[in-house]
Amino acid sequence: MHFNKYYSRVLLIGIGMAASLGSAQPAPATGPYKIANSTQLMGTGGIDYVYADNDDRQLYVPRGNQVLVFDLDSLKPVGFITNARAHGVAVDPKSGRGFCSSSPVVMWDTKSLETIKKIDVQGRPDGIIFEPATECVYVLSHREPNATVLNGSDGSIVGTIDLGGAPEQAASDGQGHLYVDLEDKDSIAVVDVKARQVTTHFDLGGKGGGPGGLGLDVKNHILFAFCHEPATAVILSADDGKIITSLPIGNGTDGGGFNPNTMEAFSSQRDGTLTIIKENSPTSFEVEQTVETKRGAKTCTLDTKNNQIVLIAVERPAAAAGAISTPAPAEAGQPGGERRGRNNGPGLLDILAVGR
């Protein structure tokens, strides 16, 4: 993920936008959501995306030069994939193949966690998503090509796509459309997955800049673009890009989603908050709750079985003094291969499951 430039510049916000955001009611600090489960694991290396494989009930956390694997229900460590210096993970549930956005991309068997192959791709792999309509994996990159498309069963490269900007998070409607927020263009690219090409771009209309997270209500065709500047959720139609409304969120979003079971969108923020947005109807939305999590917990994933939102953060030893660590799996703390960024040294990995 790329966010530094959004914290180093100042945007001038129009009077109309300021008035719109200023009229929004602050989210209640208390509500039905709370941290329902958590664990800590001492180790070394930076983190980025977290991914829940809801079919196999496994949680993937790339850290340093490995992908750590946890039981999604208990949050206990169950294994790891070595030599995988990655940002994110995606799984094809039909073939039982896992992929991580590394260079090269590593592909493994989700049952045994054994590496099957490595796939050379261009660009700088960052985000990654499995697209069910075509059973393909999209590896997203801030450099060209913006998207490399892999066959989900054998890992072969089937094509590349110019998205027209730097992609962050993506969401699929499972019906032939992939939506990708473009952080540097303040827009959402709409991809025809069968033709493997962009059909249009939805501009956020100055309501929000630097989208870092994305949620999609497939049933009602509604997108939630979670933005850095201002810290806003821009809610728009997935059919034509028409903006419905915008709501305030916390600072430093880098991930989000939508839970169709509860009709709630959610955004995780670096400032240690999780914003829950209730969809009362396709035209009515409200910030339902702001949950206190952990500072740095900027990415999240959805556990669809337990209706819980899982977040991750790393605490440096000074901040984690006195905390109790969970025993690490073999090799999980070995040095080497850490990517550049914050919290690349030793520290506690926090995994938080937020639910009712």
Task: Give a brief description.
By secondary structure, the chain is mainly beta.
CATH architecture: 7 Propeller
**Name of the top-level CATH class:** Mainly Beta
Q: For the CA atoms, what is the radius of gyration?
A: 19 Å
Regions with little confidence, pLDDT below 50 for 5+ residues: 2-23, 322-342
Shape: globular
- Major sheet, described briefly? 4 strands, antiparallel
CATH superfamily: YVTN repeat-like/Quinoprotein amine dehydrogenase
Q: Note the beta-strand portion.
A: over 45%
The N- to C-terminal Cα distance equals 29 Å
Helix proportion: under 10%
Estimated structural class: mainly beta
Secondary structure layout plus pairing:
Layout lengths: L3 H5 L6 H8 L11 E11 L6 E3 L4 E6 L2 E6 L5 E5 L7 E4 L4 E4 L4 E5 L5 E5 L5 E7 L4 E6 L5 E5 L5 E5 L5 E6 L4 E6 L4 E6 L4 E7 L5 E9 L4 E8 L2 E6 L5 E6 L4 E7 L4 E6 L3 E9 L2 E9 L6 E5 L4 E8 L30 E10 L1
Antiparallel strand pairs: 1-28, 2-3, 3-4, 4-5, 6-7, 7-8, 8-9, 10-11, 11-12, 12-13, 14-15, 15-16, 16-17, 18-19, 19-20, 20-21, 22-23, 23-24, 24-25, 26-27, 27-28
